Fold each of these.
Amino acid sequence: MSTKELELLCEKNRKRLVEVVYNAHAGHIGGDLSCLNVMTALYFEVMRNISPANPKNPDRDRFVLSKGHCVEALYVTLEAKGFLKSEVMDTLGKFGSILSGHPTIEVPGIEVNSGALGHGLSIGVGMAIAAKMDKKDYRTYVLMGDGEQGEGSIYEAAMAGNRYHLDNLVAIIDRNHLQISGNTEDVMPIDSIKERWSAFGWDVITMNGDSMEDIVKTFAAIDYQNGKPHLLVSETTKGKGVSFMEGIAKWHHGVLNEEQCKTAVKEIEERIAQLEK
């Protein structure tokens, strides 16, 4: 897909996201919106052999959402990819729905139950090691939050990634600078991300996660044969694409009222109209 086509698809996913979170009366919309660009690029440009027609293709690339509380972004992406029917998507927040507040393998297209913060990278390391052992060329992508970086298990996984030369593993940090308690640098400073992960032996790249063009370019430039695991620091904006949410900590898990939903949808629809011209 072209960059413009990806941008248009992402805006349509953004509108859907706002609507389903509003209808469910629950969700972590701020972080959903900040990682949606990356999620759209992964499923529609980067990852290979991903298809609802053959969801267990042994050669498929794997995706693990470590920041599992932002599962709504994954749900709308899977819906757009054809894994979820709209009538199933509309059950989010309803009794008996297969759609939980974190990823579960009951949902088509989801690889593992995830969202206990700090565990996703360890799972991804295991998947990447398995690919090496089986001499398969599939790649594993793990999306983490920046508030999650205080979890010690992440750094055990980081050491293992280096030890086993997992150049088939890509970790992404959604660096929106806000977590449930406020600014990450006030809660647990992590501004030394690049130096820290480089010291662990990772190939570290910073990208503009608010720019689809830069996201696509950055993924395309990854050297999957350099013997190093890869970390992309995706600089993003919490609540991206909804003006009254952007950079506001309370939208970590804020719930929209009817007026706010209409305002957000209107903003997004205006961008969709511009991109469709």
Amino acid sequence: MTAGRAAAWRRGGPLVGLLATWLLFAASAGGPFLSWANHELMLLQTAVVGVAAIGATWVIVAGGIDLAVGSTIALSGMVGALALRSGLPWPVAALATALAGAAAGFTTGALVTGALLRLLLAAGAGIALAAATYGMGALSVGAAKGGGAFLGWTAAGAGAGAACAVWLALPRLRWVLPLSPFIVTLGLWGALRGLAKGLGGNQPVYFPRHDDLAALMLPRAALLPIGVWVLLAVAALAAFALRRTVFGRHVHAFGQNREAARLSGLDVVGLERRVYVVAGLCAGIAAVLQLSYLSMGDPTTAQGFELKAIAAAVIGGASLAGGTGSIVGTLVGAFVMTIVDNGCTKLGLDNWVQEVATGAIIVGAVALDRMRQRS
């Protein structure tokens, strides 16, 4: 296969796969699958995993991997649910949810690039100041009269500020220990999920209903749901940044050849950290949509999303070897995964059939990636 034909297949192949998958279930499931209400439901289901997959695409293009996407969504959702339960306005809670995802991504990037000691010192300072702030505030009369929620968020803010200050104060700490992205994100896959369960005491966190928040993931009579517009907006911004900005071009160069990028003068350490922050922020935004969809914080939510996000990116043309990826292709891949799940449900197939189909798609996506590399 020539280079031109290979590039054309990489661009058009995902769309061909999407059309073939849709036609298969349209012919076999019929009316229940073809209805607009069902397609609107599929778009809503794609919104959450699609936003997360956009962040995963950045990581894959940079030559990395992120197995903690689902756990990041769960943890960020729990933070947002606690913020809503404490009485914060929903936009503030949504911002806290997204920032929690970005913080998880920053932690991943710090560990991958070897800043373990620097991260531990910053985290230790933050935890110490947060505990001291809460302890001193708890002794006051205001905290005893019901200011516990406000005090808790104040302590958290103080701790985050202290952690940031210590991190910025130690930019040239010489002791580094770079770790494999696979190992780091595999460890965080369990650690972040456990932290999410700890925040809720192994229970979901319920909060008063917010109509504006719930409206993000509700069908609309004339237009697409707001959550779908959020997905399209994130995708447009990410696609522009990946293709048209200096940062995006550097990510491609870094993914294609890390050593050449370093010799060219790129800050490969800072670049890799920022990529994981982007992925974490996307997971945090996905958590906002999931929070709207569930109307509660669930520490067990988004299980398996990491595999779906990676599969969506690879189906869409991203290479696990790094250096290649498309946001539009990722959206196509995410919709393929949703069509398979939804189509199996409309056919009345058991969950185990859907899981087998999803696993087969993931293996097929990896095999397709290897074939593209050979060609």
